[in-house]
Write a structure and sequence with these properties.
Length: 329
């Protein structure tokens, strides 16, 4: 267990952040060595670091789930270790001709982080295929599996995002099948594959990868936290008022919410002139207004200043309060 450890290379925004104590978790047996007396507030679980904005000092133990691609088929379910790269799981699935997550290709991060915000892209969400999430309770030393329903999934949300349980996600079980229908409901994806009359799961994953690479910076080349804000979900009345006032404002239906519509956070930010806007070395990407990037030496304060400025501008112009998708620690 290392004291005063710098997490700069373990968060994709590349921010200096020193934690009080640091421990690597390579396996289930490593999980079981964690101190049982720790409170939930004393522990930060870190995986790929792609959905975090870290403070300069983390005054708690950081348990770092190590990258290790470990995938098995058990009782017709695909079971993966929390530290498995999410994209590598997608690559593995399409290579086995198993469908269900091909639309989620190239999403950064790990399998264990995926249920926390119910990752989604191009018309598909994790909840569509997830059967269970296994968690380790470090205070009792036991494991427990939560069903899809017990995870309380909704748009970019789950029970894991806000809870006070001493849990660390250890594995997930997914229902991936060779006969799942292909989802081309997202316009950019259907347009890309317009000339492919019978695309395979691998074709869809490749198309999604190409589209994402054309829009989003590679964290290895330009430090970033991916999409920083959630797409706002609005009630029908507000949506209709905004639709009348702002021509061309995009709206999308929301599953299980017939009285609500979702709009684009990137569109809102772009209309407020935040595409490419910088505060010091903190900035919004010049090709996509929703991507928060570190152009070199940005710090936590620079990031927070830019974030708050953007939220105030969107609230002032549209009356919409943006909610962070990235977790600020």
């Amino acid at each position: 267990m290392d004291p005063h450890y710098n997490l700069k290379k373990f968060n994709t925004l590349g921010l200096d952040s020193v934690c009080e104590r640091y421990v690597k978790i390579n396996s289930l047996s490593d999980l079981e060595t964690l101190p049982r007396a720790l409170k939930v507030s004393d522990m930060l679980v870190l995986a790929g670091g792609s959905n975090l904005l870290l403070s300069p000092e983390i005054n708690r133990l950081v348990a770092h789930i190590q990258p290790r691609d470990h995938i098995q088929v058990v009782d017709n379910l695909v079971v993966a270790w929390a530290g498995t790269s999410w994209h590598e799981l997608v690559v593995w699935a399409v290579s086995k001709k198993l469908g269900g997550i091909e639309n989620l290709a190239l999403i950064p991060g790990t399998v264990g982080a995926a249920p926390i915000q119910n990752i989604g892209a191009y018309g598909v969400e994790l909840k569509d295929v997830l059967v269970w999430v296994e968690v380790y309770n470090w205070q009792t030393g036991g494991y427990h599996r939560l069903s899809n329903e017990e995870c309380h999934f909704s748009y970019r949300h789950s029970i894991f995002r806000y809870h006070d349980q001493p849990w660390i996600i250890s594995r997930v079980g997914l229902d991936l099948r060779p006969n799942r229908p292909i989802n081309l409901s997202y316009p950019a994806l259907s347009e890309y594959l317009a000339n492919n009359k019978k695309p395979s799961y691998a074709d869809v994953a490749k198309a999604v990868t190409t589209i994402r690479q054309s829009k989003l910076p590679n964290p290895a080349e330009l430090a970033n936290a991916g999409s920083f804000f959630k797409n706002p979900v609005l009630d029908q009345n507000l949506a209709e008022k905004l639709k009348t006032k702002f021509k061309g404002m995009p709206f999308y239906s929301v599953d299980n919410k017939p009285d609500s519509l979702k709009t684009s956070a990137a569109w809102l930010l772009e209309k407020c002139h935040f595409k490419g806007k910088r505060h010091g070395d903190a900035g919004f990407y010049d090709k996509h207004a929703l991507i928060l990037v570190n152009y070199g030496q940005a710090n936590h304060k620079d990031m927070l200043t830019l974030i708050q400025t953007a939220k105030k501008a969107v609230k002032s112009k549209f009356g919409i309060t943006l909610e962070e998708e990235v977790r600020i620690v």
